[in-house]
Structures are given as C-alpha cells and as structure tokens.
Amino acid sequence: MSTKPHLYIIAAMSENQVIGQDNRLPWHLPDEWVHFRKVTDGKPFIQGRKSFEAADALHSSYKNVVLSRNKNLESFDKTERADDLNEGIALLKDENEVFVLGGASVFEQALPLVEKLYLTIVHTTIEGDAYFPKLDWDEWELISSEFHDKDERHAYSFSMNLYARKEA
User: Which residue intervals define the domain DHFR in the entry (predicted)?
Assistant: First the structure.
C-alpha cells in the first residue's frame, strides 16, 4: 500500500500577496524565522530551484527535494532533485509531513494537494515580482493566529496564521 505524506505549505506574504522581489524575501522578520524553524524542524522540504538557490534560502537539516529539470543540478548533502512536484512527493512517500517552500509556481501546483497552510501575513503592501497564488478562502479555516507587532527588530507587524483545509 502506497502512502502519501501530509503536505503543508509554509510561506509569508504581504497583504497584496507579494512573497518575493528579485528572488529574495522583501522583509526581515527574525521572530518569524524562529517560528518557521520551530514548525519545520526535522521535516523535509520541497522547493523550486530558484528558491533553493536564493541568497536567503531555507534548507532542511533533514532532507530537501529541489524541483528542477536540470539533471546536472549541483548536488548537496541531504538533497535530491526531482523533475516535478509529483516526483518530489514520491521521493518523500515514507515521510509523515512535508513542507512546500515555494516559489510561486510550486505553491500553485501544491495548493490543491495541501492540507494545511502555515501562512504569515505581513501587514503591509509592498512591491514584488513573485506572488502567492490566489486562495479561495471558503476552502480554508483559520486554526490559530499569533500577532506580532512591529518593533526595533521588525519593520512590519505580522500574523503567523495556521489554516486547515475544510472537509469537503
């Protein structure tokens, strides 16, 4: 019997759905990083090549799957390459929980498959060139939300939200 892992998206987006600019995050939110590490610790990641190679990329200390058709992609410790999302999920079929880290096109492909969204809303509108896909909010239920005000270390306030897909 083949099993499939529980698939989750973890991302941060502005109120106008920006997730990136020039292949970087358009903000620096240290406490959100702490939250990210706590949620994803010891879990495998799936992400696109550009997200994996970004200057501020996040890599799992456990296992990474990079989506790229480039068979000559530089290989790293604890990292495997897959041609597409389905192949990436198949590589992680024995895992319980898998986090999808983006970018935009990977989020779009994964969205119909994921059970939970760990979605931080950064309370600003900002210029960017990568956007989180449009969500049908009727399909999602807010499970928890933790608000963080702006302070000397955080230029923007943000809410770390967890959404679960509603039962059909």
Answer: 6-165
